[in-house]
Amino acid sequence: MVTEDNINTARSIALKCGIISSNDDYLILEGEEFNRRIRSTPHGKDACHRFGISIQELEKLMHTRGHEGIKQLNETYDGLSGIEQKLKTNLMTDLSNDEIDLSIRIAAFSQETNVEWIEGVIIIIVAIVPALVTAFYAWINERQSRNFQSLVELDQKCNVIRESTVQQIPIKDIVVGDMCEIKYGDVLPADGAIIQSNNLKVDESSLTDESDLIEKHESTDLFLLSGTHIIEGSDKMLVLAVGEYSQTGMILKLLSTIKEQNNDATASQKVVLANVNPTSNEDDLDCVKIEKRSILHTQLRKLGIQIEYTGIAIVVLTILVPLVSFSIEQVIQQ
């Protein structure tokens, strides 16, 4: 229930703080409007003089723990009864719903900031920017993988049998179900199974790092893997896997997710690069393609570093913006 003392106290604080210009103005203020005015006025802190304890003292008290907290409560404030008197409350009957009294307590023990939009912007930045950076970096890796795959397939052709006729087509046009003619010196463009072989021996060191030749036959070991060398014999192969689902494709996909260091390549990468052209009389073209790949990776490394620096800058900004806003708000309130 609103008492005359409550009204007089609130009117005196409102006049002192500049919230109202006359005694009559107070009568037309509703509770929410009074709260807003008293909290938005820097002098609203004077309301804490009505109480025998400040928000800073309460905060310091709450930082104590265990027996130390009990000791400080008893020695400094004479226990909970002392706090009760200073806060002008009643442990038995609690606070009333008097809007005037509640408004005075809000002015004395709380702060209202007007920078909510900054928090929203920070949340948006923290949520969206990392996602955009991650998506962009994933797109760069995907483009790297496709460019490298195109480099491997550049000017490479393979003999396939279609409509009972041997046709020479680019290896990128090979599809599952094709029958390929494989001979000495070729690098397998896809994974497949032997249909008919003639003293076929394969170098699988690109996959296993073992230099021993593997003899392949339809009755013993009939599966052939892309990226391996045909050292002896010839074969007709049924294509079972192409592109990223072949052994070479899976290796390239794995390599695209690894951040490579300068002049550091794995054994699988070296073999794939060496197999760009199977014949020895095209070594010059191999060197040119390796150089192009090196330039591409160098550019990607630089881009990755720039993205990392950008991420660090964003993190620093997300920390500085709230701190600066908080500092400005504190200066204004003082």
Q: What is the beta-strand fraction?
A: 5-15%
The residue fraction in helices comes out at: 40-55%
Rg calculated over all Cα atoms:
39 Å
- What do we call the CATH topology of the largest domain? Calcium-transporting ATPase, cytoplasmic transduction domain A
What does the average pLDDT come to?
72
Outline the biggest β-sheet: 7 strands, antiparallel
Overall 3D geometry? rod-shaped
Give the CATH level 1 class of the largest domain: Mainly Beta
Low-confidence stretches: 23-32, 276-283
Distance, first to last CA: 34 Å
**Tally of distinct domains:** 3
Structure annotation, total helices: 12
Assign the CATH architecture of the largest domain. Distorted Sandwich
Give me the secondary-structure category: alpha+beta
What is the number of E strands? 7
Give the helices and strands as they follow along the chain. Answer: HHHHHHHHEEEEHEEEHHH
CATH H-tier superfamily of the largest domain:
Calcium-transporting ATPase, cytoplasmic transduction domain A
Subcellular location: Endomembrane system
Protein name: P-type ATPase A domain-containing protein
Pfam family, one: E1-E2_ATPase
Membrane topology: Multi-pass membrane protein
